[in-house]
Structure formats: C-alpha cells, structure tokens
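Q: For a teaching handout, I want to show students what a protein-ligand complex looks like in token form. Below are the inputs, and the small molecule is cobalt (II) ion. Please produce the holo structure.
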Amino acid sequence: MAYFPEISKIQYEGPKSRNPLAFRWYNPDEIIEGKTMKDHLRFSIVYWHTMRGTGSDPFGPGTAVRPWDDGSNSVENALKRVEVAFELFQKLDAPYYAFHDRDVAPEGESLRETNANFDKIADALLAHQKGTGVKLLWGTANMFSNPRFMHGAGTSCNAEVFAYAAAQVKKAMEVTHRLGGENYVFWGGREGYQCLYNTDMKRELDHLAKLLHMAVDYAKKIGFKGQFLIEPKPKEPTKHQYDSDAAACLNFLRAYDLLPYFKLNLETNHATLAGHTMMHEMDYSGMQGVLGSLDANTGDLLLGWDTDQFPTDYYLTAQTMLMVLKYGGFTTGGVNFDAKVRRESFEPIDLFHAHVGGMDAFARGLRIAAEIRKEGLLDSFVKNRYRSWDSGIGAEIEAGKADFASLEKYMLEKGEPAANESGRQEMLENIFNLYI
Ligand code: XUL
Ligand code: CO
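A: Here is the structure, written as tokens, with cobalt (II) ion included.
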C-alpha cells in the first residue's frame, strides 16, 4: 500500500542538486573518520510528532491533513498508522524510530484492555520491523497526558498513581524488549512541581528513584540489555522539572545509586530552556561518561518555549557532532528527531521536507566536525592554553602532590604568577567559520 505515491526513496544527489527531496550531504555509505555516515548518525524518527502530531496549539485545533488517519482512537486506525509510518521511515532511509506506548496504541477502558491493544500493535510493529529492517531506537511510556497523572507519575502524591505508573513502565519495557529496542527512555513528563507549598520534594524524589530502581530490577528479570536513559528538561509542563538539566540528572542518579544503569538523552530545545547550549550539555555529560543519545531539534529564542523545530542550523549541528565525535560516537544512541513540522506546514509532504532537511543538516554538521578535527586548530589551541598544567607546579597539583603549604611556599618565592595570555575567542570563532 503506498500512502505517499508521489514520493520515492530519498537519494543522495550531492551538494549541487536542486531537488528539494534529495540529500545533498547525507550519503549513508560514505566513510568519515573510519565509519559510514549512517553508523555515525543513526537517524531516528519519532512516532509522537510525525504520526500523531496534529498541529494543535493553545489557540486552536490541529491543522494537519493526514488522509490515512480517520481521527478515531480505534486499534484499526492505529494499525493503519503503522503501515504509513514504516513507508515513511523507509522512504526517508531512516534506520530507527522511537515511540511512547500511547502514540502507537490507544488506551482502552482498563489497564488490561490498554495492554491488549498495545500487544496487537506491537505484533504489527514487529512484523514491519522484520519486513523493512527499520529498528527501534527506544521506547518510553507516556505518563503525562492522561489526567490521572496530573500530579506526576513516579512523583505523584497519590500512591496508586505511582502503582499505575509502575505497571505502565513494566509493560512499555516488555514491548520495547520484544521489539529489540536499544534503549529505554524516561522523560519526567510531570515529574516536578508547580508550587512548593503543596509539595514534599524529598519524598517525591525518593519515589522517583524507587521507580527507576524497579525498572533496573525488572530489566534484569526479563533480560532487557538496552540502555536506560533519562532526558533532562527544566520546565514545561511543570514550573520546575526535577530532571532540569544534565547536572541535576547526574546528581540525582549519583545520590540514589542509579548512575551505573543510566545515561542521558539530551535534547537541544531542553538545553536552551535550561539556559545552556547543547554543546555544554553534551560536553558535561560526555566527560562523565553518560552521553547516551540525542533528541535533535531546535527552539526559537524569540519565542522561548519548547517549539521542537527541525534543526537546520549548521553551527548547531557541527557543534553537536563535534561533541559526538569527541566522546567516541554513539553506542546505543542516535540522532532522534524529536521535532515537529509547523502548524502552517500541514501537508503530508512537509513531513518529508522536514526530515530531509534535518538529516542533511546533521550530515553537513558531521562533515564540518570531521574537518575541524582533521586540521586540529581548535584542539591544539586548547591543549596549548592549558600547557602550564603539563609540567612543573601544574603537574604537581594535578598529581595530588601539592597542598596549601607547598603552594604558599611556591608563590612566596615567585611573588606573581606567570603572565596571562589572551583567550582569543574572536580568533577561534573565525576559525570555526572557516569550516561552515
Ligand atoms: C518532551 C519530550 C518527550 C520525550 C519523550 O519535551 O522531549 O517527547 O522525548 O517522552
Ligand atoms: Co525529547
């Protein structure tokens, strides 16, 4: 069945091509730094925006025209969406996809019926994965849309809501495992607070940690070897999300003995909402060994909320890929387009323009990052900038051979430290520009 009859599989045509539905930079089998572009980038398409996004916003209903979707919550409609989704994944040449339980399968009247619906759709997803070779990057549970989660899921004040959330994660993990998912993600949908006057923050965090430990235990029980990931976000929907940024996540994981089991799924728009750049979040996570996967998108700094736009900015993608390469590339992670077409881009073909653009921007970013690394101008500047730590007093401090007394003695003898040198920010920004 062809739901996109006018579109054939997107091909690499090179930078001179003016065909809007061709890759100019993404040449999947081309080798960069010893690995194919496909293996570097591990592109993934999200079910929630691409298959379920309607374009609704707080001011009006959806605008998206999706001729295959009858708008109902039926299992039949959900099964049809699976066919559409895999045609789209294949035509975009995306090796991976990702979903929430509730994007793919409708909720029933009871948890039992909901689980049965999920199993039926999982059968179809598995059959399509086998038929196409498209794989599951990660699964997750939507524990924020249903009104039962108004106070959170793992952090709800209502213990039975916690129990429901546990049951939901259990099922979502089972399905993710069955479909060979390479990761399982926790984004703390409503795990945060609006008002501290009604919140026992310590108790809520203790409970969230309990939920995650139960997930770790259950993974062992069912033999799920995928990587657990936490996705930081500082706000939206709550005023304060507990997993506010990479640093907060790391502190939480360490405090509750979860660090051995989790890495982070960093999202560009979440980084900017937290007042960081994506590069900062990636470097901070990478240096601590928890750079797991990426939700690729971009915000609009003039709007300032989580607009989840497709990334097209080469500076952003080059900086992002520079960090991916710096930390040795993805293992289980990938570039997952947690991005949605604009409300005004309501035609099915816009889904293709959006993904082709995002994939190409990342492919270009990868090429730029590899060129920057090949010439090594930035790396050698940084290395030289810290050379005072390579020998003498710097090396002694790093080796733990110095203390206050020895450092006081050293400075009393010297009088003043060696002269400082320029940080050369403008020169380095000009160097970065050489590669864009
Ligand atoms: C929300 C968000 C989610 C997670 C998965 O901002 O990014 O879609 O990626 O729950
Ligand atoms: Co996300």
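A: Two things your students might notice: The pocket of cobalt (II) ion (ligand 2) is lined by residues 187, 231, 267, 295, 338 (CB under 6 Å). The radius of gyration is 24 Å.
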